[in-house]
Write a structure and sequence with these properties.
CATH architecture: Alpha-Beta Barrel
CATH superfamily: Aldolase class I
Number of domains: 1
Number of strands: 14
Bound molecules: phosphoenolpyruvate, manganese (II) ion
Strand order of the largest sheet: 1-2-5-8-9-10-11-14
Distance between the termini: 47 Å
Low-confidence stretches: 1-5, 444-460
Number of helices: 12
Oligomer: single chain
């Protein structure tokens, strides 16, 4: 149980650190409250419009990045490779399924983690759990594990650095004419890389064809990548809430989209209460215990205006549950006229412990949850609106399977995550090719509103 002595009275705030020194916390919060915003209201509104297209069935969301960013992981190469992976996946989806793809990184703020237990015990010693670099350090020492509010200041600065790289990259390196170069660094014989190279060749020919015809489509030279993270640390999020001078509305300026996690989504909790008061696009993670009435509750609390794009549901049921549990939630939303984006997080319901004690995930199960998600939407005539994954641009060995055939006995080779196991670049591409196939079968894109979103109407 976590009490929150530092917080003002009000709804219960779950998963907050016990900061040891209230005066230090106050000083950090005061600094953050006068610091410049990291993102601006009109950018958040732009993303809300894009996500409105997802909710209406005309676009697909690709959201991905680390489970937990780390301060040490803020390097130009690391961010570039992560973005390139995201971009390669987006190209596979856009080209493979002819559907506009909204790209959101789990980055520039994804530094805090909820934990299943507030403490960790090793050999009879009990210390606070690691809650992400925003709160404490990962080493199992009293010094590292003691929450330090000054880390929230570092989180702010690191987020600014990452955002700067993302903005520069989106404006420079993300030109579709360079789609080949994003494949660099892949092992030459990687099946995912080879398949991608082939597709990039087709894109080259398509671009050359358009150029020869005198067509210069917008959106080829630069791209839009938005930033998102779990809005977990309320001290941090409250301190960065700002009224935007242009729109006159209050935004959480720590990122474009913030999501409420599976462990903090209580309808009467402090997270739902705080996020109901900011204008950003929001997402809520829905685990297997989610009830249809909760779905309605989130829509009423977080999207009372029923504005497409304001609210996205990220479903993380597990491959074994999704076919059984998801339909009732979608049916409730249809019956109530709720228009939200439905997105599949096929990672968090499929985690298991390998024989060597490492947390891992099987790509086959991840893909099976995605298949189940698509099947449910096909059955109901609704739009499978996107995918939310944990990935990295590095060739890590954290998840099992994929065209590189990583096994549990290989995990030790390159297991670097600060929290949950991520897809490596090749596995990310494997996933993107499968999703593109399913989207194509689904008949998505082509600028049509492909959702019926009316109870009783079925689309085959
Ligand atoms: C996460 O996205 O890393 C996470 C903790 O997810 P969830 O809240 O769905 O468990
Ligand atoms: Mn995670």
């Amino acid at each position: 149980m976590e009490t929150q002595p530092n917080h003002p009275p009000g709804p219960r705030a779950e998963q907050q650190p016990s900061w040891p020194d209230p005066s230090e916390l106050r000083s950090v919060v005061d600094q953050l409250a006068t610091a410049p915003p990291l993102v601006f209201g009109p950018e958040c509104d732009q993303l809300r419009d894009r996500l409105g297209e997802v909710a209406l069935g005309r676009a697909f969301l690709l959201q991905g990045g680390d489970c937990a960013e780390t301060f040490a992981g803020v390097t130009a190469d690391g961010i570039r490779d992560k973005l390139r992976t995201l971009l390669q996946m987006a190209v596979v989806l856009t080209y493979g399924a002819s559907v506009p793809v909204v790209k959101i990184g789990r980055l520039a703020g994804q530094f805090a983690k909820p934990r299943s237990s507030p403490v960790e015990s090793r050999d009879g010693v009990e210390l606070p759990s690691y809650r992400g670099d925003a709160v404490n350090g990962p080493a199992f020492t009293e010094r590292d594990r003691t929450p330090d509010p000054r880390r929230m200041r570092t989180m702010y600065e690191s987020s600014a650095v990452v955002l700067n790289l993302v903005r520069a990259f989106a404006a420079g390196d993300a030109d579709l004419h360079r789609a080949h170069t994003w494949n660099q660094g892949f092992v030459a014989d990687s099946p995912g890389g080879a398949r991608y190279a082939e597709l990039a060749g087709e894109i080259d020919r398509a671009l050359a064809f358009m150029a020869a015809c005198g067509v210069a489509p917008a959106g080829v030279r630069t791209t839009e990548v938005f930033a998102s993270h779990e809005g977990l640390l309320l001290d941090y999020e409250r301190a960065l809430a700002r009224r935007d001078p242009v729109t006159g509305r209050t935004y959480a300026t720590s990122g474009h989209l913030l999501w409420i996690g599976e462990r903090t989504r209580r309808l009467d909790g402090a997270h739902v209460e705080f996020f109901s008061r900011v204008a950003n696009p929001l997402a809520v993670k829905l685990g297997p215990t989610t009830t249809p009435d909760e779905v309605l509750g989130y829509a009423e609390r977080l999207d009372p205006e029923r504005e497409p794009g304001r609210l996205t549901f990220v479903v993380r049921m597990g491959a074994r549950n999704v076919r059984e549990l998801l339909p009732a939630l979608i049916e409730k939303s249809l019956a109530e006229g709720i228009r939200v984006g439905w997105v599949c997080d096929p990672m968090h319901g499929n985690t298991f412990t390998a024989p060597d004690g490492r947390k891992t995930r099987q790509l086959a199960e991840i893909l099976d949850e995605l298949r189940g998600f698509f099947e449910v939407h096909r059955e109901l005539g609704t739009h499978p609106g996107g995918v939310h994954v944990e990935l990295t641009g590095d060739d890590v060995t954290e998840c099992v399977g994929g065209s590189d055939e990583i096994r549990t006995s290989h995990l030790h080779r390159r297991y670097e995550t600060a929290c949950d196991p991520r897809l490596n670049r090749s596995q990310s591409l494997d996933l993107a090719f499968l999703v593109a196939e399913m989207l194509r079968e689904r008949g998505a894109g082509h600028g049509r509103d492909i959702t019926s979103q009316h109870p009783g109407r079925r689309q085959g």
